[in-house]
Specification:
The protein starts with a helix and ends with a strand. Helix content is about 10%, strand content about 40%. It is mostly beta strands. Strand 4 (about 100-110) and strand 5 (about 110-115) form a beta hairpin. It has helices at about 5-10, 10-20, 25-30, 35-40, 45-55, 90-95; strands at about 55-65, 70-75, 85-90, 100-110, 110-115, 125-130, 135, 150-155, 165-175, 180-195, 200, 210, 215-220, 220-225, 235-240, 245-250, 260-265, 270-275, 280-285, 295-305, 315-320, 325-330, 335-340, 345-350, 355-360, 380. The chain is built from six helices and 26 strands. The radius of gyration is 22 Å and the shape is globular. It comes from Olea europaea subsp. europaea. InterPro entries: F-box-assoc_dom_typ3, F-box-assoc_interact_dom, F-box-like_dom_sf, F-box_dom, SCF_F-box_component. This is F-box At3g07870-like.
Length: about 375
């Protein structure tokens, strides 16, 4: 018996075990081998097993000068990023978006929440780039009026298994220079559960939320760096299962800053706060024990001298820590760069054409949007 015949005649559970260990792009090609493999790969059980084994990749959204966005997925190695993307798709073309910029709200288990920015309304989508499935979320009948700010978060209830999109909206007066809120006349929070046709009103909305960042999801909660009306910075936490806000301990004691340049992320299984307030250094705080204030540690102090030194006006996001001590970071909307631990220097990373970018860590998966949404509402690009 040939090697090919031997592989074809293996028991189904062994074939599934082998195929589920392969990268998602390779699995897509395996669907073309035979009907048996296509059937095995198309089951929810395979999707669950593959997701458990799948390694995160870097997703880079690039906004093209002529309009539209393209998303490229790059694999990691032990010391950096592969130069060629393993996957690419035209976001605007694929989702039939004709105008406006589109950005990423968040990604969980291979599902990506996307936001198309509008003057009066936002359009929201949930898609899986690997399965090419997507769904338009229902419009929320709340028109934007200036000055106003809206921010989003994408989360998963660890108890019910339901995916939820959270929208926080503020209307009032803010400082045109810093964006800090001076007064808030209208404040709303709405939650959409994937698979339903409506948004629910959550009335308790503490403090002012910046539209410059989305809420990273970790440990069942969404997190935002926020400001009270006096300009003191805090962290707000939203429990996705209970749909309620609660305070969360920051590493700093309610400090006030002229420029709010603190970003939150999840790195190496911990909540991470990146502080770009200083003109000369970037400080990375890591919460070693979730929810415990004393476990915040100033893990890294990265010098910006000479190439990145000077007044800072943009947030820096930490994306990944490598075993050799290198750190992958992104400067808001502009570029990717490495902190090289051995030389203690910053190095810019080329990830395609030099367009405005947004980044995310993405776990390729075969989780189907149809598992949560009526099939007739799911589109395929």
């Amino acid at each position: 018996m040939s090697d090919e015949g031997f592989l074809m005649n293996l028991p189904s559970h062994i074939i599934v075990e082998i195929l589920s260990s392969l990268p998602a792009i390779t699995v897509i090609n395996c669907k073309l081998v035979c009907k048996k493999w296509l059937s095995l790969i198309s089951t929810p059980e395979f999707a669950k097993l593959h997701l458990f084994k799948s390694n995160p990749v870097l997703g880079v959204f690039q906004h093209k000068p002529g309009g539209g966005e393209v998303c490229r997925l790059f694999e990691f190695d032990h010391h950096g990023i592969h130069s060629d993307p393993v996957f690419k798709f035209e976001v605007s073309v694929s989702l039939c978006i004709s105008h406006g910029a589109t950005g990423c709200v968040g990604s969980i288990n291979g599902l990506v929440c996307l936001r198309n920015f509008g003057h009066e309304y936002d359009a929201l989508y949930i898609c899986n780039p690997i399965t090419r499935e997507y769904v338009n979320l229902p419009f929320l009948d709340r028109a934007f009026e200036n000055p106003s700010q809206v921010t989003y978060g994408f989360g998963l209830s660890t108890i019910s298994g339901k995916y939820k999109v959270v929208r926080i909206f503020h209307e009032g007066a803010n400082d045109p220079t810093t964006g800090a809120w001076l007064s808030i006349s209208r404040s709303e929070c709405h939650v959409h559960t994937l698979g339903t046709n409506s948004w629910r009103d959550i009335r308790d909305v503490p403090f002012g939320y910046s539209c410059r960042s989305v809420g990273p999801f970790f440990n069942g909660n969404l997190h935002w760096v926020i400001q009270d009306l006096e300009g003191s910075e805090l962290i707000s936490c939203f429990d996705v299962q209970k749909e309620s806000f609660h305070p969360f301990p920051p590493p700093f004691p309610g400090e006030r800053h002229k420029r709010s340049l603190h970003s939150l992320g999840v790195v190496a299984g911990c909540l991470c706060l990146c502080d770009n307030t200083s003109d000369s250094e970037i400080v990375l705080w890591v919460m070693k024990e979730y929810g415990v204030k004393k476990s915040w540690i100033r893990e890294f102090i990265i010098s910006k001298v000479p190439d990145f030194a000077g007044p800072a006006y943009e947030m820096v996001y930490a994306l990944k820590f490598f075993e050799n001590g290198d750190i992958l970071l992104t400067l808001e909307d502009h570029c990717l760069f490495f902190y090289r631990n051995q030389s203690e220097t910053l190095q810019k990373v080329e990830a395609g054409p030099n367009y405005t970018i947004q980044t995310m860590l993405y776990v390729p998966s075969f989780v189907s949007v149809k598992d949560f949404v009526l099939t007739e509402n799911v589109r395929v690009f």
